[in-house]
Amino acid sequence: MTSAIDTLVWQTLASVAIPGYTINRLCATSMYLLKKHSKLPSTTRKWTTVAIDFTYIAVPFNHTICTNVICGLI
């Protein structure tokens, strides 16, 4: 039973809490910096923040897939 609880807690942290918090802070920081240091309109700032966050999510994920799955099969 202890092993199941440990697994549940670890998986919750690893797949939900830590990535969610990290992405939230990245969004908040990029929005703050764009608001403070640029003269972009509000809508453009929001979409720029989305683009920054998608890049943050996609690049490490794609690198991991290439390194561990695709490149490992060659």
- Residue fraction in strands: under 5%
Large-scale geometry: elongated
> Which regions contain 5 or more consecutive residues with pLDDT less than 50?
none
- Mean pLDDT over the residues: 82
End-to-end gap: 40 Å
Radius of gyration: 17 Å
Order of helices and strands: HH
Total of helices? 2
Largest sheet: none
The computed structural class is mainly alpha
Helix residue percentage: over 70%
- Tell how many strands the DSSP assignment holds: 0
Describe what this molecule looks like in 3D.
The protein has 74 residues and is mainly α. The chain is 92% helix and 0% strand. The protein contains 2 helices and no strands. The protein has helices spanning 2-37, 42-73. Helix 1 crosses helix 2. The longest helix is centred in the N-terminal third of the chain and has 36 residues, at 2-37. The protein is elongated, with a radius of gyration of 17 Å. The model has no long low-confidence stretch (mean pLDDT 82). This is Mitochondrial fission process protein 1.
